[in-house]
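The instructor's notes for this session suggest beginning with a concrete chain rather than abstract definitions. Hand out the sequence below and ask the class to guess, before any prediction is shown, which regions might be ordered.
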Amino acid sequence: MATIKEIKELLTTITDLESSLFEELGKDPRAGVQKEILKRKREIQAELDENNRLETMLRYEKELYAKGISLIAGVDEVGRGPLAGPVVAAAVILPKDCKIKGLNDSKKIPKKKHMEIFQAVKNHALAIGIGIMDNHVIDQVNIYEATKLAMNDAVSQLQPQPQHLLIDAMRLDLPITQTSIIKGDANSLSIAAASIIAKVTRDKIMANYDQEFPGYDFAQNAGYGTVKHLEGLAKLGLTTIHRTSFEPIKSMVVLPQKKIKKRKKLWRKNHTK
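After discussion, reveal the predicted structure:
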C-alpha cells in the first residue's frame, strides 16, 4: 500500500476534478488520504476560479484581438488623492492572451504580494512606460490635467507604440484609438498591469521621501491624509513635496500670507503718521 506521502505526490499531478484517480484513491479508508484528496480538489477548484476570473478580465482585450488589434496598452494612474508627492501613471502592453496569476486592481492585491506581481508583469510585458508629474506640476495645472500629462508621457515611452489604449476612466488627446473603462483596473488585465506598476513605483518614491522628510509617515501612508501625516503637518509644517493646491495644505499656506499682509498693513499705518 502506498504511503500518504506518496499519494500526496501523486495528487499533485492531477489537474482535472473529473480525474478517475480521485475515485480510485477515494477508496483508501485512511483519514490522511481523504484529507489530502479534499485539499487537492480545493486547490484545483481555486485554480479554475482564478483562471475564470482572469479570462473575464480579458474580455475587452479579446474584443480587440477579434478585430486584428494585438498591441494593446493598459493605462492607469496612482496618486490623485494624496496631499503630498507625485501622481504616477503607467502604460503596459502585455502579450496576447497573457494571464498573470493574482493580477488585479492594485488596491485589491495584498501588499505582501505587490512586488511579486509587479515583477511578474515586468517579466511578461512587451513594453512598459512610466510617467511622473510632481506636486509642482499638480499645483500649476490641477490634478486632472497632471494625470493626463503623466499618462501621455507613459504612453510616449512605449516601444512598440500601441494600436489601442484601454484607460481607467480617462480619455487622452493622442492619435491612438482608445477605450475608457469605468473601474478599468478591476475589469481589464492590461489596465490592472499598469495599476500595479504605477502603485509600486509610487510607493518606492514615497518610501524614499520618508527618509528625506521623517515625521510624516510617508512610507506607510504614501502621502495620503492619515492621522500621522496630519500630526506631522501640525508639528513640522509643510515640506517641498506637499501639494499647496490641496486642502488642508492650501489653508496652511494662505493663512500665514494673510498674517504677513496684516502685519505689513499695521506697519504702514504706524510709520506713515
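Then share the key points. The two ends are 110 Å apart (CA to CA). DSSP finds eleven helices and five strands in the chain.
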